[in-house]
Design brief:
about 425 residues, alpha+beta, twelve-stranded mixed β-sheet, 9 helices, about 35% strand, flat
Amino acid sequence: MPRKLFVHPFVTGAIAAYVNASPINTQGQRREGLRENIVETKKFVAKDGGGLSFYVSGPCIRRMLRETLYEYYDWERSPVTVVAKEGQKQIAPEAVEFPLEDEDDETKVMAAITAHTEGNPFIYADDDLFGYFIPQKKEGARLRRAPFRLNSARSLPQAGVVFREQRTMSGHLMDGGRGKRKSGEIFHPILYEVEVPTGPVSFIFALSLKNAGVFTCGKGGEVTEEMYKAAKAAGLIEKETAWGVNGKQVWLTKEERLQRIRDILEALSELNGGANQTRHLNDFRPRAIVAAVIDGGQALLQDSFIPSGDPFKPVNIRLEFLVNRLKQYIKPFPCMGGSAHQNGVSMAGIFYRHPGNGKCVFIADCDFIHNKDEVRKAVESDPILKEIVSFEEDVREVLERCCEIATHLIEQNIPW
């Protein structure tokens, strides 16, 4: 069977950022001897102790992105419901009495407390693009897989540094253990330590244009019948088709779908937030990017960045890797009808072309990239790459070009 095209477009790319002496994502405290307060950063350590790299977790980046959307793009937060269980019995969280008898009891209860959003993607854009899981016994659980996906931002090989910063805080020492505060207990000021990472990091993202603003309703669906009826009465639905057993698949209006896609791509260019910003302020906004709109969910541009060794221009684009990867997937696939054109949309291999300049792959031409001149020279001297690669001023411009392709696809009903 020939490979189909125009099936499942994704906006995808690799992003490089910088963590500048800031523990923006820690994994809690660890004891060492009598010192209780050692706050570790999240990191990978080789078994032989010879290698170390730190990372900023995917959930942490998602939280930064959510907060950016709430604060600067007026996204409304989906209400959160907290549920606690006592054995097999569901109880109200406020009915749990604290403090408990010991730490083990508290750990068990906290593990039994769950939270979920309202799960109404018609109203709340965060439920739409970040997904949700709503546990329900009678109606059955409602699960929406997130159209927007990303991974952890890991420090580039041999470029991440983690050092410990010592500070003083009011704490207590009791026989080398935690113990509990008791009447007459003597407290002493003690040192605590924070692991502070520094270095360039890279992560990948993907946004499904086929699933953004598209929901299933019915048994095992993502939205309830009541939500569907309310959305239809409010004029939020543009189209619906049959789905499953007596179910339906529904599309938000094109205007609303496009607005959500534009918002999240713009917000991605100006991430802000993270832990410990009072003492360790850090700018985590993306500094460099390689992005495209492709047909399929593969992370084709993963591993596009490597460390350069230059402290002021800390990353290089892996030129040989990128050239080979683009040429591999730019080759025409035998597709249905033998053409890479449909409804005014053109493709080069599995890459969607920009409706204006016909380019497919976009690179931020920024000073954060040490070998940017070498990359530009290689692209301009190659007749194939010259036709598909475009250099943009910054990360925002790259994401705007991808957004323009996404807008063209949805306006031309691809996918539909």
